[in-house]
Hints:
Blueprint: E1 5-14, E2 19-24, E3 36-41, E4 45-50, E5 58-62, H1 66-72, E6 79-86, E7 98-104, H2 107-120, E8 124-131, H3 140-145, E9 149-154, E10 161-162, H4 165-174, E11 181-185, H5 188-200, E12 205-208, E13 236-238, H6 239-244, E14 251-253, E15 259-261
Helix pairs in contact: 4-5
Amino acid sequence: MSYYTTAPITSVRKENYRVNTLELDCSMPGAKPGQFVMVWLPGMDEKPFCIVNAVPLRLSIAAVGSFSKKLAAFKAGDKLSIRGPFGKGFWLEPSYKSVLLVGGGYGVAALNFLAEQCLAAGITPVMVIGARTKDDAIFENEFTRMGIEAFVSTDDGSAGFKGRPHELAEKLISDGSKFDCIYACGPEKMMEAVAKVALAHDLPSQLALERYMGCGIGVCGKCDAGGGLVCKQGPVFTGVESLKLAEFGKCHRDTMGHKKEW
Ligand SMILES: Cc1cc2nc3c(=O)[nH]c(=O)nc-3n(C[C@H](O)[C@H](O)[C@H](O)COP(=O)(O)OP(=O)(O)OC[C@H]3O[C@@H](n4cnc5c(N)ncnc54)[C@H](O)[C@@H]3O)c2cc1C
Ligand code: FES
């Protein structure tokens, strides 16, 4: 059997002006929310993408650079080569009754998969959909369709709560909502702020980190976040673990391994 799965895209759904969700004619039944696949575009590169749905496999792609713009423009019938699932995903504890999911940008899509698993486990998820403006918000209809309470926060106040996603998380908790854990996926500065909100309220948190990746399987060392390989020990780390990583919230590395500030 090939190490890669090559499967045709069965449909493409436009989430907003720059995010497309690709559904593939293949499944990863054992995959967990927070895990990722490596997508290979021959002649270009190979990059990691969160599993948004395992059966069938769905990936949500934000078109930001050359690789993702090419991928987001794929059409139904085009074929993709992928390998995975890789990494450590989010986990749920049997004692949890209600959890808060905080997503920023395309990170919201990966939390949709976690929300489904919460419902299957009898845990009530509450969703914060963080976006810069109302045009950036994604997946609100998905959460509503699943019967999940979803709150939108926008940086400019063009929809929902005006402010950052962690500020809305703080408000929900201060207003009396009870959560057993906070999960976050999105820009690193947002996740750092969410981890601090969780700590301030004595709550556990789990964050899905991102780093430039080469191999995706713990061999090349390119995804080191300053004390942890994101592809192998992560991408999901607890908030406490993340805050101990030397580069978390401070910098990341480019393809050449040079440090870049967030
Ligand atoms: C574990 C993991 C999971 C990931 N899951 C997803 C996913 O589900 N969906 C997805 O779209 N991407 C995901 N990524 C990011 C993805 O792997 C690529 O890094 C991303 O698509 C950009 O690659 P690029 O070559 O197109 O752009 P690059 O050439 O790397 O970047 C081009 C420009 O865009 C900027 N940029 C990069 N990312 C963003 C961003 N998110 N928002 C705004 N500007 C940005 C860069 O700073 C740069 O200026 C994930 C990364 C990791 C490590
Ligand atoms: S990407 Fe190679 S070790 Fe993580």
